[in-house]
Amino acid sequence: MPETPLQPVIETRTLGPVETNCFLLTVPEGEDPTGCYVIDCGMQPDPLIQLIRERELEPRGLLLTHCHYDHIGGIEELFEAFGPLPTRVHPIEADWNRDPMLNLSGMSGWPCVAPQPDLRYEDGAALDLLGCAFEVLHLPGHSPGSVGLLDRSGGTLIAGDTLFAGSIGRVDFPTSNPEHMKLTLRRLLELPDETVVHPGHGPATTIGTERVENPFLLDLDRVY
What we know:
Layout: E1 9-15, E2 20-26, E3 35-39, H1 46-54, E4 58-63, H2 69-72, H3 75-82, E5 87-89, E6 119-120, E7 126-129, E8 132-138, E9 147-151, E10 156-160, E11 163-164, E12 167-168, H4 178-188, E13 196-199, E14 205-206, H5 207-213, H6 215-218
Parallel strand pairs: 3-4, 4-5, 5-6, 10-13
Antiparallel strand pairs: 1-2, 2-3, 7-8, 8-9, 9-10, 11-12, 13-14
């Protein structure tokens, strides 16, 4: 019989002034049960740091869905707590952490200059996260380098600021692109209905729920 794929445990902490969802990924049944990955560390990451310490976990890396300030503002604090971590981002946004205009902190009132990511990932890349296979999906629209992290075997998508419960990511920023967002949403609609979506803001949902309830998916012309 084929081996049952390992199932990751994804825990959410909602952090910072704009309530950004940050994720801690562990695989308790895997070969590295004390390892973890942080996905989007947000701003004011103390609760996330405390959780990692309480569990006596060892971060193996930081994965960024995109480089807006509310998703990267706590990187320096995270690194102060655990040392510099290998950090992945889509190459389009490789320089955004140090540019307050691109990461939007310059227009937010919280100017942010964060450590630069040292690793890249492209659309379709396979990631081995503690023994679990994830696929990188390039999902531009909200920002040009937005990505999702898809566990096909477990039916889980960490979606960043692309798809929310009942809504979608904003496309009115200087580097947003509504037409790209429409293509991204069409791509997400190709996923199975049972796929659980962990968004960058708000509660988790499923592709099936959003397919029938999300006004932006029901009428993509609303995306502008």
